[in-house]
Design goal:
The structure holds 2 protein chains of 2 kinds.
Chain A (H helix, E strand, L loop, with lengths): L9 H24 L11 H13 L6 H18 L4 H8 L2 H18 L10 H16 L1
Helix pairs in contact in A: 1-5, 2-3, 3-5, 3-6
Chain B lengths: L2 E5 L3 H13 L3 E5 L2 H10 L4 E4 L8 H10 L8 E5 L4 H10 L3 E4 L4 H12 L1
Parallel strand pairs in B: 1-2, 1-3, 3-4, 4-5
Helix pairs in contact in B: 1-5, 2-3
The chains are: A mainly alpha, B alpha/beta.
């Protein structure tokens, strides 16, 4: 989903640079969520919002892997917090720090290199998320 | 110049849509949520409305319902552009009166093609 016909356009390059710069702010948003998912004050919504927005925007700027992985996190995390079974929610949310770390790492990689973090699609955390996302799709 | 109203809370998506559609000769106005989109629509007639689904204040589904229930602009074509892109969501918004559904991430050139088709 690349917008590849735009890649030679200087205006598009400027927009892409702005998008890349926004990743630092998004990382800060994740940091503000914290890892303390067992505390009453824990609010997963900002984290899910970061993943959801990245899923939609990153691929539109040509960062397809960043978009895909963010989409898996968005859907799996959303399903976890909406799980009607308390035990299901607790089991899923125990993996919250892992999801947050993965999303943070792939944003940092993208900021550092300016390129799509393709290698992260084979990261075991990402492949697990992908399988869970596929499982959710089958159920719905 | 045909005017397109874009309701989108992700700034970088709104900028990309504006950039691409402006290059194709459209006048693009942007809202950050569904309520702001309705306010703009009440002031200016538009050839097309592009709605995100998940937005603060008023989401895209609610904005779509209100557009379709207001005689002043009920006939305005609506394109839903969403990362919440399951078949269930698509069926639901088409039932509410959306004309087309595109999933994010999107190819800007494909979006421009669809917008031209819908405003022809």
């Amino acid at each position: 989903m690349s917008g590849s016909s735009l890649h030679d356009d200087p205006e598009f390059a400027a927009l892409k640079a702005e998008f890349l710069a926004s990743l630092a702010e998004r990382r800060q948003g994740l940091a503000d969520c914290g890892d303390f998912w067992l505390t009453p004050a824990f609010d997963p919504r900002p984290f899910i919002a970061v993943a959801h927005k990245l899923a939609g925007s990153a691929g539109s700027y040509g960062f397809d892997s960043l978009s895909r992985i963010s989409g898996w996190i968005d859907r799996v995390a959303r399903a976890a917090v909406e799980d009607p079974l308390f035990a299901g929610r607790i089991h899923a949310l125990s993996r919250w720090p892992e999801w947050r770390a993965l999303l943070d790492e792939i944003m940092l990689e993208t900021i550092s290199t300016g390129r799509d973090p393709v290698d992260y699609e084979s990261d075991p955390r990402a492949t697990r998320l992908k399988a869970e996302d596929e499982s959710l799709s089958t159920k719905s | 110049m045909k005017r397109v109203l874009v309701a989108e809370d992700e700034e970088h998506i709104a900028k990309l849509i504006t950039f691409k559609l402006a290059k194709e000769g459209f006048d693009v106005i942007c809202a950050r949520d569904g309520q702001e989109a309705l306010n703009l629509l009440a002031k200016d007639s538009c050839a097309l409305v592009i709605l995100d689904l998940m937005m603060p204040v008023m989401d895209g589904s609610e904005a779509l319902k209100r557009i379709r229930s207001d005689g002043a602009y009920a006939a305005t074509p609506v394109l839903i552009l969403s990362a919440k892109g399951g078949q269930k969501e698509e069926t639901a918004v088409l039932a509410l009166g959306a004309n087309r559904f595109l999933r994010k991430p999107f190819d800007p050139s494909e979006l421009a093609r669809v917008v031209k088709e819908m405003t022809a």
